[in-house]
Design a protein that fits this description.
By secondary structure, this protein is an alpha+beta fold. It contains six helices and eleven strands. It starts with a helix and ends with a helix.
């Protein structure tokens, strides 16, 4: 999944694992205050460490979920938080599991029955994947993910694999690897309804799939629109 952005980022000066806490300054002289991401724990107060500061930058383009972007842009674009508040994103618990033998299932599933699983796919069926591997991605439905949002990954793995077994109509073999990841802001339920939010005069903008629709293509289109707006 990261192959496309890695190719697009080739040759760029990137700094990863930063938790941005504030955008300061103004047009043509923006600065970013940030902490090391490893120091920040969701739901807990920010650590007392002194934030680092980078800049100045001509422009700032944010590709963040609305709830995370709103407090950053509020001091500079007071009207934007209300627009962002209207966007609705659903969470998604996802399990990645590997098995020693093939599962009695088609390569892709969209049950659509309101159960725990909204989508599952045999990841090893994609072109170029190693032969002999039986790897699956299982996504929890929005309603199930909301209900179990704060559960530990160790509890989510068996629950979603049990739901996958129910779809297979047979017990699954013990996985040789299994891990769960929670996407708190995942599926777009109510989009912004425009390609991006941009203030070219200030050099500030927001982009994401949530602007248009819950698809990777929408994220690409939104980012392209924001770039065009900021570059004039």
């Amino acid at each position: 999944m990261s192959g496309l952005p890695r190719a697009l980022a080739a040759g760029l000066d990137l700094a990863a694992a930063r938790h941005v806490i504030a955008i300061e300054g103004g047009p043509g002289a923006w600065t970013i205050r940030h902490l090391e991401a490893a120091l920040v724990r969701p739901g807990r107060p920010l650590p007392a460490a002194e934030p680092a500061r980078d800049g100045p930058f001509d422009a700032v383009a944010l590709a963040l979920p609305p709830a995370q972007a709103a407090p950053l842009v509020a001091p500079h674009a007071p009207g934007w938080p209300a627009l962002l508040d209207a966007v609705r994103l659903a969470p998604c618990w996802t399990v990645m599991a590997a098995f020693a033998a093939p599962l009695p299932l088609p390569d892709g599933l969209r049950p659509g029955d309101g159960g725990p699983v909204s989508w599952a796919a045999r990841d090893s069926s994609k072109p170029g994947r190693p032969r002999g591997a039986e790897c699956w991605v299982v996504q929890g439905s929005p309603s199930w993910s909301r209900m179990h949002l704060e559960e530990a990954p160790e509890a989510v793995v068996p629950a979603l694999l049990e739901a996958l077994a129910a779809l297979a109509g047979a017990a699954l073999p013990a996985p040789i690897h299994a891990a769960a990841h929670r996407w708190r802001y995942s599926l777009v339920e109510v989009p912004l309804g425009r390609p991006c939010l941009a203030d070219p005069a200030r050099g500030l903008g927001l982009a994401g799939d949530w602007c248009l629709a819950g698809r990777a293509e929408a994220a690409f289109d939104s980012g392209t629109a924001l770039a065009a707006a900021l570059l004039g």
